[in-house]
Amino acid sequence: MDRLPSRTEVPFAQAIGLCLLKENTYDKKYLDTHTIGFEEFRRHILGEDGTAPRRRQVGGRACDVPARVIIALAREWALKRTSLAGGVKGGEGGACRMAYATESARMMVLLQAMQGLGKPGVKHLGHHHGPPYNADLNFPDTRPAA
After folding, report:
1. Angle between helices 38-46 and 102-113 (to 10 degrees)
2. Beta-carbon neighbour count of residue 3 at 10 Å?
């Protein structure tokens, strides 16, 4: 193993969460009505629980992504519905298949909850069966008649 997900993805996700919290670009109503414990997460990310507050710069250094890119991504994400996927087709890998990798999977769900998980376009996909598939989608045959 060349890296542990908790050393890269988690600080990156926390930095995105920090941006969404500081800029108030998250779905407060959804969190109030559909989640339990979000206030603890918020306090932790902002450092209001006695731990050091998370910083976009720390997230950037931990995953080699500049803070400005993390901020731009969080702002773009706040403007659109976003789906996240962890894992690969067939179940050969996945977000939870390494030491401490459950933390990055939990962060994916927390970030999705900040957007209103389950609303149209806001999904968390495992991809153990491949990408989302719509069997009802039919494209007309555009080949010339023989």
Report:
1. 110
2. 10
Tokens 């930095």, located at residue? 15
Global confidence as pTM: 0.73
CATH class in words for 5-125: alpha beta
Model pLDDT for residues 48-97, shown as the tens digit of each residue: 998 887 877 777 778 888 888 999 999 998 988 777 766 555 444 555 56
List the beta bridge partners of residue 85: 125
Tallying the residues shown for the chain, one arrives at 146
How is residue 121 written in tokens?
Answer: 């376009």
What secondary structure does DSSP assign to 32-94, as a single string?
HHH-SSHHHHHHHHHTTTSSPPP-HHHHHHHHT--HHHHHHHHHHHHHS---EE-S-GGGSS-
Identify how many contiguous H helices and E strands the chain contains and give both numbers.
6, 2
What residue segments make up the domains of the chain, in order of their start?
5-125
